[in-house]
Amino acid sequence: MSFSLALRHRFASIEMDVAFEVRSPGVTVLFGPSGAGKSTIINAAAGLLRPDWCRVAIDGAVLADTDAGVWLPPEKRRAGMVFQDSRLFPHMSVATNLRFGMRRVAPGEIRFDDVVDLLGIGDLLDRRPKALSGGERQRVAIGRALLAQPKLLLMDEPLASLDAARKAEILPYLARLKTALRLPVLYVTHALDEAAQLADSLVLVEAGRVVAYGGTAEISARAELPLASRDDAGAVLICRVEAHDPVRLLTRLQGGGAAFLLPLLDLPVGALCRIRVPAREVILAGRAPDSISLHNVIAGTVRRIARDPVRRSVMVEIGLPDGGLLSRVTADAVVRLGLAPGAPVLALIKSTSIEVLGS
Amino acid sequence: MTMLSPEEWEAVRLTLAVAARAVGFGLPLAVLTAWVLTRCHFPGRPLLNAVVHLPMVLPPVVTGWLLLIVFGIRGPVGMLLHDWFGIRLVFTTAGASLACAVMTFPIMVRSVRLSLEAIDGGLEQAARTLGAGWFDRLVNVTLPLASPGILVGAIVGYATCLGEFGAVITFAANIPGQTQTLPLAIYAALQVPGGEAKAAELSMISLTLAVVGLVLSDWIGKRLNTVLGR
Predict the structure, then answer these.
(1) Which of A199, A347, B111, B154 lies at a C-alpha separation of 20 to 30 Å from B17?
(2) Which CATH number belongs to the domain containing residue A17 in this structure?
(3) A164 lies in which domain range?
């Protein structure tokens, strides 16, 4: 099952030429700087913007194919959209807003009470949008889009207008939603933390083009991509909780074909969880040091070495049996360790520098 | 203060009725026109815009004369109405309403249009993604949000109708009980020696109606904005 989108469109300032195909139930994050054309893509998916040429399909069902003259208008697409500015109807109560889309489709499997529960908006139903906080408004907007029983959920920077605290308030809801939904979600953002936490697939967009797309673990661990040249670059790994050691207060995770030891996590054994290993926290070594506080000594092979002329540093991509890691080191270290593609290497990672992103 | 004669009361009643009919028929058309002017893009839009606003800039007498040309018994529309439906507009109450409606049309269109333009287009987009077609959006999103402008347009239009003179007297003439509205009655009173007192009384009524209308429109506009959650 897959979701595919391709479009070409010429704006005065930018020429868009985009195509990608991702796994269908799952969150696809369109990631890139402002002005890269992410919103154009999502608006074309919604049908709100008609590009010069466009093709959109979910599991073979064609929503748009300009070559064949197919262009479903937004009201026929069943594409629920969450806008950055929520766009709740000011003259309706929260409950009426939530039911707006619901009343216009046949009853589906997404139920009113479940959505209200999931988003924690039960106490807001009688209020007007004006009386809601920014975070509450976005939660209602998400609920409204879900209750329209969408076949595709589009989220255009839904958290961008919120401060860090509000954002932290909503992200867990989104993460919960992610596991509860069985539909393709297209999520636009330029915030790395949202992408790392939510994305099943990543589509990197820059200046109207798709630079790369694929699974989050794969894309986040590629040294040559623009993602890796960020200060806060780091590989995301999808892990499973393997065991807890209550005596040593450690949890062992298995992911990417390697084992990671972390400070004890409050997750059941067998649960999935996401970790992010920041590139600047990964030390490379030729052989394992003894007598060191560090827990994680992970064997891999050098897959790629990308030089960063701006930072005078080097990004080393380390291949694991089923994934990869990134490490930012100096050019001198590369020479001293004799690193080259194909060479075996050990990645040393402090347990406490691994970020746990939730499930 | 001398008592007003039955004929003068008749003028007040007639004025209110004529204005009500003018707004009753004119407002829906004004809403439609304003919607077309703000939401539809077509080549003839500037022309439509100009035609709609014409009565505002033309001397009212000219508007009345144009109405005579078009809706007179020998006019293209007037002849059709007369021959097919037996309707005569010239020199009738209905004609006075038509003249009032045409004169206040630009005011109503402007008021509705301003409130339509103030609506965030994003809300209509959101309604689209939620499965609402154009008519659904118009009825459930656009018009409710524009309702303050529509109501204010109706009230200001109504108040303006009460004072319409030039077009009415040209097209519908000054017939007591049929087309003699308040301003026409005031004019008639001033033509008669010693009629100044009557004219003053009628003017006071006119003034009161206008002030009540304006205060009401302001109050309703504010109330509605609260109801609409703004």
Answers:
(1) B111
(2) 3.40.50.300
(3) 2-220
State the pLDDT confidence band at B2, using cuts at 50, 70 and 90: low
Instruction: Give chain B's contact residues with A (Cβ, < 8 Å).
Output: 120, 122-123, 125-133, 136, 141, 144-145, 227-230
Largest CA distance in chain B: 69
| Beta strands A313-320 and A61-65, pairing class | unpaired
A74 at B interface, C-beta within 8 A:
yes
- Mutate: best of A39, A42, A104, partner B, most B CBs <10 A: A104
With contact defined as beta carbons under 8 Å apart, do A296 and A261 qualify? Answer: yes
Please state the ipTM of this predicted complex.
0.83
pTM: 0.84
Report if residue A228 sits inside a domain: no
Residue A340, Cβ density class (10 Å: 0-12 exposed, 13-18 middle, ≥19 buried): exposed
In chain A, the number of structural domains is: 2
**Beta bridge pairs of residue A7:** A18, A54
- pLDDT of res. B114: 92
Query: Total structural domains in chain B?
Result: 1
- Is residue A229 in a domain? no
In tens, the pLDDT along A307-337 reads 887 778 899 999 999 899 999 999 999 999 9
One domain, residues A185 and A299? no
